Amino acid sequence: xxxxxxxxxxxxxxxxxxxxxxxxxxxxxxxxxxxxxxxxxxxxxxxxxxxxxxxxxxxxxxxxxxxxxxxxxxxxxxxxxxxxxxxxxxxxxxxxxxxxxxxxxxxxxxxxxxxxxxxxxxxxxxxxxxxxxxxxxxxxxxxxxxxxxxxxxxxxxxxxxxxxxxxxxxxxxxxxxxxxxxxxxxxxxxxxxxxxxxxxxxxxxxxxxxxxxxxxxxxxxxxxxxxxxxxxxxxxxxxxxxxxxxxxxxxxxxxxxxxxxxxxxxxxxxxxxxxxxxxxxxxxxxxxxxxxxxxxxxxxxxxxxxxxxxxxxxxxxxxxxxxxxxxxxxxxxxxxxxxxxxxxxxxxxxxxxxxxxxxxxxxxxxxxxxxxxxxxxxxxxxxxxxxxxxxxxxxxxxxxxxxxxxxxxxxxxxxxxxxxxxxxxxxxxxxxxxxxxxxxxxxxxxxxxxxxxxxxxxxxxxxxxxxxxxxxxxxxxxxxxxxxxxxxxxxxxxxxxxxxxxxxxxxxxxxxxxxxxxxxxxx
Length: 523
Ligand SMILES: NC(=O)c1ccc[n+]([C@@H]2O[C@H](COP(=O)([O-])OP(=O)(O)OC[C@H]3O[C@@H](n4cnc5c(N)ncnc54)[C@H](O)[C@@H]3O)[C@@H](O)[C@H]2O)c1
Ligand SMILES: O=C(O)CC[C@@H](O)C(=O)O
Hints:
Rossmann fold; CATH 3.30.1330.90; 7-stranded parallel sheet; 6-stranded mixed sheet; binds nicotinamide-adenine-dinucleotide; binds (2R)-2-hydroxypentanedioic acid; D-isomer_DH_CS1; D-isomer_DH_CS; amino-acid biosynthesis; oxidoreductase; D-3-phosphoglycerate dehydrogenase
């Protein structure tokens, strides 16, 4: 396995990667240069400088892209997901650094520090021009109450500020121990003396502050954006700073980085740093180490800690869920080897102890199993929901409440243009996977090796004829299971066979009188 590191990350992260795999560090590559070399790598590790485009991913064999930091707006997530490339990030390591930088910018704004420094270095002793304002008692608007927003709020409370915050997605418990008032965006805009932004750049946050929002703000408001360029409309900001409506603004991030052509840089009431929010030694070591560990986990097929485009399971739950993930994938594969038809819906029904867990990954594994037999594109836990959606397959998850310790049972009900069928499985002690029903037939199959399934009429002689045919062709039967709907009615037989079953023998089995269908399932 080979890993390409295409931005500067801390050596501590590279050392971790190097202990397991070959690592090449090649920075400042153009898109075309990356396209040219990416084919020989299994993993790519970036910070924010490398733009990981669909073109770069298109002909790559990448299994994972690691982002040493929080924001993944430099990675085309849709293209990665479509291609089944797992994206992981390191969201925790730079929270302190970014929140401290925000507070530094807040103070620099309030006390005119950059301009005062510049003036004195130009040998001018001007104390009148740089009269500041105090933070104590002022209102800070915090837009986005995630990791960094909350940390900024706590630090600002320590400075005696009152906090008004806006985050429509916040969970109450996350902020109940912080002395802040959560309000709507308009209230933040109208009432705050300072406003700081800590949201990701998304369709809903792009230009969330423009001409209209500036007009709602207090005269002389001060703004800080240490999150992402594009959240504040830079043209409107230029006008608001020029007119004095906004007395001062501190930007660490810009719509286009580096912003060397931006007229904003010429304004004296604009403070700017070159995307330094995460640039502390501590944060850089932390994010590089975190992302390196996750990239290795991904390459080894282990559960990662910080997936961006795949469902996340807490490590404590993963060991319990894992056997069901494997089982569901086999059930999906079992189903599409057994039946065909245009699938319109897959319903995953959970009962017993599994019902109390986060089953999203099990559902995704079931879909992966289903798609693995019908699509050219290899399905995995990253792209399976996307591929299913693309094919118009509706996925339903249902949990049925049962007594506390009933064994976990998963039923996969598949609707196609040819009807509805199902397969049911469970996991016994020691992670022993079993398929326990196909449609209404109760069976007990270990999903392993080759299994011959026959659908036939329950009548004397059929089982013997199949056995004789297999014996004549030197095919050993490992075990046999029988199920029937009624006496002499429709029946199912499952035979575990030790050898492969050639197509001509399968055709002969299908010709046996009373036989409706015979299918070889391979695991
Ligand atoms: N300047 C830097 O170097 C630097 C360093 C680290 C992080 N960042 C950036 O800081 C931002 C915050 O990072 P984080 O780690 O706190 O992320 P986070 O995911 O923990 O928090 C983001 C918060 O924004 C909220 N949010 C999303 N859409 C919103 C909307 N439309 N309106 C209001 N709130 C909304 C979410 O509910 C969430 O609580 C990100 O943009 C990240 O890329 C910048
Ligand atoms: O890599 C950096 O220095 C910036 C990282 C920061 O913007 C982030 O989103 O984590």
